[in-house]
Please model this.
Amino acid sequence: MNGKQVSKATLQRLPSYLTYLRTVPYRENISSAAIAGELGLGEIQVRKDLASVSGCGRPKTGYRTDKLIADLEEFLGYKNIDNAVVVGCGRLGMAILDYNGFSEYGMNIEAGFDADEDKVGVSQTGKEILPTEKLEEYCGKYDIKIGILCVPPECAFQACRMMVDAGIKAILNFAPVCPSAPEGIIVKNVNIAAQLAQLANSMANREYSEI
Amino acid sequence: MNGKQVSKATLQRLPSYLTYLRTVPYRENISSAAIAGELGLGEIQVRKDLASVSGCGRPKTGYRTDKLIADLEEFLGYKNIDNAVVVGCGRLGMAILDYNGFSEYGMNIEAGFDADEDKVGVSQTGKEILPTEKLEEYCGKYDIKIGILCVPPECAFQACRMMVDAGIKAILNFAPVCPSAPEGIIVKNVNIAAQLAQLANSMANREYSEI
DNA sequence: GTTTTATCGATACTATGTTATCGATAATAG
DNA sequence: CTATTATCGATAACATAGTATCGATAAAAC
Model:
């Protein structure tokens, strides 16, 4: 996007700084040590991460909270909205479809799709749920490039292919499979069960620290 | 747990190998190159990762699929079941409570808790939903050490404290906040909106590859 | 039985990411 | 106005992770 050189590792931590800053009781300035303490990171790491996006840090006082939030939002691209659709309107899909916290991260969920005729209609918050046959038409019409895949594992491959055919270029996959996608399509797998298991393991091994 | 020296990075990839092996059409043997190709990794990396847990690789043929799956399950601790509870039975909490894929990862969701009296009862699949006042008693009685936090952000801090008071030592947090927990408690934050935003960004920057 | 081939595993190298040190400086106290 | 203190930012040292090279070897071909 811009020429700033930010490491992958840093990029993954930036959202957590923003989330923290948004929820912490307001104070005009905040120090790297305070952020680090709360998030279980080193203060030097925090300074280095923030230096790559903000430059509003000042000796003795720390960072101006509101400027830092604005800079993070700017850098992370949360100021211009991206649209996405949900494919698979089971319980998880519906929860995501109606979740109202996406706008804080620059995302908007436009509509849901499901193969089951009974699901077609509108969600609790009034979002459209359409049959999967309409996916291609809809994504073309509204230029949707991002899809959230929430179908059962046995349907995941087929659903994934339909999304690709519909012109979707990035897929957030909640099915516990690794659907193969053609070149140029980004798939990010989110496996809640595996994350929970990892947590259980960390605990068993006494790896005490925030992850 | 055991003395094997496995890097953090490797540990994070191991579950994805297992998920892939479980869903790929069965074949007796599989090569590192095949796994790497499907998961978008380097084959050397795959070999190195697998070497730390299995040692069933053989020249010319690759790895014995079933042995590899068994070794991964063993290593990741998916063979002995850990129990967990869900705190906050909104739509996401309910979806997790009734999701049937946890056993594959050695996890079992025992019950749900909610502050809202109307939610108390049983879930669609028959799991108990109890009032939050019962959390401490329940966790003590059944020795529950793992909790999944699915409450709205404004309740997260309070709910987190209740969980800690109830003896929970590891929290998988879906609320978009960073609840501070005392020493010895592991908190793993899962922010779906932030992950979606990151995906949108990767796409915008043409970083084509599976994440 | 020897040669060829596909693949692993070990070692060495390179890149990336983290932590320590230290000088610079804004705010405060004297 | 000078000294002190808290904090940042840059540079350098260190640690971790990823990649390339290469010898070893099991299976298959000849």
